[in-house]
Amino acid sequence: MNVLLLGGSPSAPSTTWRLQQLVGARLAALGHRTNALQVRDLPAQALLRADTSDPAIAEAVALVHEADAIVVGTPVYKASFSGVLKVFLDLLPQDGLAGKLVLPLATGGSQSHMLALDYALRPVLASLAPRHILPSIYATAAQLPWDPDKGVLPVSVIGARIDAGVEQLAHELEGALLRKAAGSLSALAPASATLHA
Length: 197
Ligand SMILES: Cc1cc2nc3c(=O)[nH]c(=O)nc-3n(C[C@H](O)[C@H](O)[C@H](O)COP(=O)(O)O)c2cc1C
Prior knowledge:
The protein is of the alpha/beta class and 197 residues long. 47% of the residues lie in helices and 19% in strands. The longest helix has 41 residues.
């Protein structure tokens, strides 16, 4: 299945993106195809003007449209999710996440704003009509130490949350695959009925 990593941090390097890449690598190891979209790489003026005729913006919206699941990541900024991510979500159509699974991730400077994903980002995602928003994963930057050789090395409590999140998303993607297969079969049924008539 097709998984999009949607990065909402304006920073590079980004702790949030490292967490997303870790989740993406785990899903890729399970056989899912992953694509990456960093909102900060989109043309700023077209983004701010919600100019969906701009080729880069149109391509980004198409990546969202084609995804079966979206792993959306944001740093906590001012007790909420990033403005960079909001600007992008605002230019999606009203049902821009229809039928999709969504796994929200965030990193913050402390535990104080760990609910920001649930009180700020989750309602915005829900307004875009996804099939299901999975439980969020939140980590502080200190819980995601970086090793230049080994990459990000989550502390054990975060490692366990990542395991649970990946497992749940993979399970739901299997269900989505079965639904797709059933849909394709039922679309074929009238044709085969005609053949046998
Ligand atoms: C402008 C700004 C505002 C921030 N506001 C908060 C905040 O309200 N609460 C918090 O826990 N961390 C806050 N932080 C810390 C970041 O959320 C944290 O460093 C995060 O891991 C950065 O992720 P990134 O490297 O992916 O951008 C803020 C950082 C910046 C630069």
